[in-house]
Amino acid sequence: MDWTFVYLMVGLKLPILALLWIVWWAVRSQPDVDGGDEGEGGAKDRPQEPPRPSPRRPRRGPHGDPPLPAPPRVRTVARARRTPSRH
User: Tens digits of per-residue pLDDT, 52-73?
Assistant: First the structure.
């Protein structure tokens, strides 16, 4: 019998069994209904602040700069060059 076979068939099953045991333990555990001390930290029951209204214009760029204006329109007209005719 090869040690690699033993390792694969037995050694790698231990993490799977440990995972199954942890899941079983978590499912069977009872939820904590005790309120606990107030000085333990964690989330406190504070009244929720109303959400701030969104600004009228959305922020643009990393520093809230307004959007750049559109570049001026440039119309180019392609014209054929006239070459002097030789007669």
Answer: 776 666 566 667 677 778 888 8
